[in-house]
Structures are given as structure tokens and as C-alpha cells.
């Protein structure tokens, strides 16, 4: 045998602490056909700084679709079926780098996914630039060993093979045709080179994670060994591995035979399917012969279908796959939403999910029983959703499993006429929905009965669009797209249905009121600015108060939300107003000349607007203007102090009752903003930030110029005459 090794690698990704599925870093690989050995090389590393501590990295594996994980232990939707993922842990302690190898023999060909993440996020809101997080990197490489000339076992044709040594097992493959209901594998005439009885182990199927359904049988002696598989995977290659359990240098010869039992399908005619598809898309054509002709065709077809049911083992009903959007598909039955279900043979619907881009959503199957269509009160319609091959024996075994897949069972009856199933991240394959009528006293009771079941099946990115307390996000890894729910207001779970830590409506209203009404503390600062003739500064404070109020009204995670314009616009205006308010306040305190002050106002605002557009959450967007303005203020104060030959500001009352309280409030506000905010306490700590910053502005604004008279509204009524009189006096003096 000729083996070929191949190597696949993807770029390293920076890991994140886990709070929702978007924090898990996904790796997507495709394992080629005839692979006999798969080796994952997992490399994890961390930075060397003092902020880097011991860390445990969790790595999940899954075949066919991204792994369904639940690191936070939250609840899934009610009708969702979840099977635990296969995962390992990689610890980074004293070593900066850790390399782990995972081996898988006879892996299934197709898509394989790896997801890696750090432990649960602490929930602390960190200001970008104040602290340097430790970088944790993860990279996955894949090595495969592929057999280039794997022998093909043809159905019904015996094949003689030899195992040279136990170290080199024998690999063969057999193609499973469509509509195969049963496969039988036989091992005959197994002898060693000394013509003695042999001992071998036969493994049918490939390994899939998180669950593997390989069939293993041990054959000892001259007795023929056989293994039967119900519902093998249709139109796929099935690997067979035979290992010798004898001596090290003993060769073993044997004869292998594979046979299949075919299932004859019965379905409605192609003419009727084409006619239904044409009518559903274009509607009835004018000038047609009317309903009588269609009724005659349907009646004739119905009589033929009854005879087909007795001669076939399943009833096919055509399904149209309608692509709506990315990871969004609707399945439509050509002959109407209702399908007839009998006890003679299962009704089969094919749901195509093998495009390679369908595994990143949720498959939803909803069954609704028409109660008037069932003649027997105790009859049950059993259903099974499975991948690769359908379940064809619901009436006998009542087990929703195929040869290599554990299906998802459903059932409807008169007392419970509706059932729903949600398959999270369905694996890439052809899926089948099997339905059959079952009676408690035996199938003879159901021979004449027929049930009508309405089937709704669709693929959606997020089930129920993550509900009112979640946001469905479309994630991307290279060219692969998948969806995840980001929850808010304390809600959690895969689809944001877990209300264990959810905020009540009262708490949501309180959070909105605190974050919005706390901006009213700018009113004293506005009043002080207007009273002291700082009209430009007052305008900036009004702008900041307005947009901060409505930004936080729009930024709320719950139902107490009000957006007067686009969210991104509100956020940008809020950030711009906050930084410009600090800029103009410090420049006003510097007491530079008016023309220079207004030039700095405009120039600084333009530069701040540019920097916020580049990086809205960078700490230097706020610290940079503050430090530059402080440098200007200190330089101006030193200049005034040197000119007057005493400290500036000269009044001790100005320092004790205004400057020191204002500076103290500003430092407390910065400390709360930078070090105390978390996701849980955000609504009141950020409200405290609003109150402290607005209060500090009212204290820090300097007094008005001495030549400015206080606002006197009674005197302003005669200002027009007074101005004219002053102008005449000046003109007279000039002439």
C-alpha cells in the first residue's frame, strides 16, 4: 500500500475570555477521503509580561459542524437537543508554550472544526490603554496520512485479502448505494500462513466526534464472522479496517463479502410534482380545464399510491430547498404542507444541508397533527430526524438511530398535536425526516388509518432571532460563516432564553433613568457658564448633555430603549461632546486671550473629531487633549504668576472652595470610570461618573472678567439707545 502524508495549517488566533460564542476562536479543516490517520498539533503560547498568569485553555472538537459548547453552564432552548462536545484542556503554567498532539485513526472524511477559548470573562470593563492584557495565542495544525490505493470491495463479489503483519492493518472501502436499508459484512476463510485459525478484529465505519458509532467485531477461529448494519449511510464510502491479533510476523489471509438489501421507494408521479411546483410559483393559468381535470388526476394517482405503499418500504415526498439568505433556508413540500402518514411504510422527507455553508445555523422542524385525520384515538405518529440515512423501522424497533448516527425523535398524537425540534449547528450532510403511524395494540389495527401531519422545516442563523434580549451576530472564519447570540440585560443561554440572572423590568427602567437623568447635573455647570458669560462653553455643555442623555437611552440592553437617531451617530456625538467639554473647560481655566482661546477651541475640536473617528475607545483620545490643555493652562498660570509676582490664582478662597473640590471630583470620576466599572454595576457607576464630571465643571470654571458686568435684564431693555449714544460720543471725539 502507498501512503501519502499531507499537512494543513492555519494562522494563529488570539484567544479571548468566554462570555458568548463569538469569543471562541474557530478553526475549520477538511479531511480528505481515504484518510487512515489524523493528527492534530495544538500549540498554545502566552506573553512574557508580568500581567500573564497561569491559564487553562479549553479546546473542543467536532465533525461536520462547529462544536456546541456551554462553558457557562446556562440553559438551552426548550426543544433544543444538545450532546456534549468532545474537549481537552491545555494548561499554561510555568511554560510559555505548550504543544499537544491528538491522534484519530480512521477519521471521517469531510469538515472538522476546532474551537478554543479561555475561562469565563470577569465582566470588568477595561478602558483601552489603561492596562495591557496578556496575549494568549492558539494555533492548530493538521497532519493526515492517506492511503492512495485503498482496495474497493464491490457488493456481492468476494474479495481475497492478506494482512502481512499486525503492525499494518488492512483497509478496504465499500460504496453504499442509495435506498440501502441493510448492509451485511462477512469475513470467511480466515487462515494464518500456517493454515491455522486466525484471530482478527474488524472495524466498520469512521470516527466522528463528539460521538463515534464504529461497529467492532472480533473474529476467532474458522467460523464465518458477520456484522449487519441497519440504515447505512447512503451514497457514501464506508471504510472497513481489519487488524490481526496473532503473532508479530504471522500473515493472515481472508475472504470478505459485502451485500445490501435495497428498499424500493414509492412516491407521487413526476407529473404531479411538476404540476404542483408550477402552480405554487405562477398560480393557476387562465383558460385551464378547471378543477375537474386536476381532481381526476389526483384520484388516479391516489389509487396507484395505495398499491405502491404495499409494495414499497418508504414513501418519498418531494421537498424544495429555498435559499433565503446566508445560513437561512426554507423547505417547502411540493404537494402541500401536509403529508399523509400510514403504518405500512414510513413517509420520508429529504432536507438537504450539504452545501458546506449550512452547518452554522439552527435546523428547526415543527410537526402539527391534524386531529380530524386520525381515526384512532390512541395512535401515535412517530418521527425521527437523522443525517446520512433515514430510519426505516420506526414501527418495529421504535429506535431513532441508524448505523452510524443517533437521530432525534419526535412524536405527535391527538392529546399532544404539536412537536418541535431544534438542532443546533447541524452537521453538513443530507438530513432525513421519517414519519410513521404506530398503534399501541399492533400494526394490524392501523392498516386502514391515515394521519395528516403538517411539516414546517427551515434553517435559521439564530433560533427566534435570539429573542428580545439578544442580538444575532454573523461570525466569520476565513470563508466560513456561522451565527451566535450575544445576550444582554443579564439573560444568557444559547438563544438568550436563560433568565437565571436576568434583570427585571423595574431594574431596566431604573438603569435607564439613572444613566439618562444623571446628565441633568450639567444644568448647574451650564447655569454657571451662562452667568459668567462663557457662552461657547455653555453651548458645548448643552450639546454634551443632550447627546449623552439620548445615547444612554438608546444603549440600554433591555426593553427600556429609545433611539432618536442611528446608534452609531449617538455614540460618536456622545464621545465627541465628552472630550470637547474637558478640552474647553481646561482652556477656559487657563485665562489666555480670547482670540487664542477660540482658535484653540476650534482646532482642538477638529483634531478630537479626527482621533475619535480613528479609534473611538482609545484612552489617548481623552488623555491626549486633557494633557495638552493642562500644559497650556500651567504655562499660562506660570506666566500670570511671574507677571504679577505672586501665586496664580492669588485668592486662597478660589483654591479652597472651587479648585480643590473640582480637582478632587475630577480625580474621583476618572478613578470610577477607569477602575470600578463592570457589566453588572455599569448603570450606577457610570451615572456616578456623569454626576462627578458635571459637578467638577461647575467648580472649575473661573469667575467672569472684571470688566464684565453681571446680567441685568432691566438695563438691557435700553441697550439700543445706550449703544447709539456711545457711538455718537466716539464719533464726536474723533472729529
UniProtKB/TrEMBL annotation:
<dbReference type="InterPro" id="IPR021910">
    <property type="entry name" value="NGX6/PGAP6/MYMK"/>
</dbReference>
<keyword id="KW-1133">Transmembrane helix</keyword>
<keyword id="KW-0472">Membrane</keyword>
<feature type="transmembrane region" description="Helical">
    <location>
        <begin position="510"/>
        <end position="531"/>
    </location>
</feature>
<feature type="transmembrane region" description="Helical">
    <location>
        <begin position="655"/>
        <end position="676"/>
    </location>
</feature>
<keyword id="KW-1015">Disulfide bond</keyword>
<feature type="transmembrane region" description="Helical">
    <location>
        <begin position="682"/>
        <end position="701"/>
    </location>
</feature>
<keyword id="KW-0245">EGF-like domain</keyword>
<feature type="transmembrane region" description="Helical">
    <location>
        <begin position="595"/>
        <end position="614"/>
    </location>
</feature>
<keyword id="KW-1003">Cell membrane</keyword>
<dbReference type="GO" id="GO:0005886">
    <property type="term" value="C:plasma membrane"/>
</dbReference>
<comment type="similarity">
    <text>Belongs to the TMEM8 family.</text>
</comment>
<feature type="disulfide bond">
    <location>
        <begin position="462"/>
        <end position="472"/>
    </location>
</feature>
<dbReference type="InterPro" id="IPR000742">
    <property type="entry name" value="EGF"/>
</dbReference>
<feature type="transmembrane region" description="Helical">
    <location>
        <begin position="620"/>
        <end position="639"/>
    </location>
</feature>
<feature type="domain" description="EGF-like">
    <location>
        <begin position="458"/>
        <end position="497"/>
    </location>
</feature>
<protein>
    <submittedName>
        <fullName>TMM8A factor</fullName>
    </submittedName>
</protein>
<feature type="disulfide bond">
    <location>
        <begin position="487"/>
        <end position="496"/>
    </location>
</feature>
<keyword id="KW-0812">Transmembrane</keyword>
<dbReference type="Pfam" id="PF12036">
    <property type="entry name" value="DUF3522"/>
</dbReference>
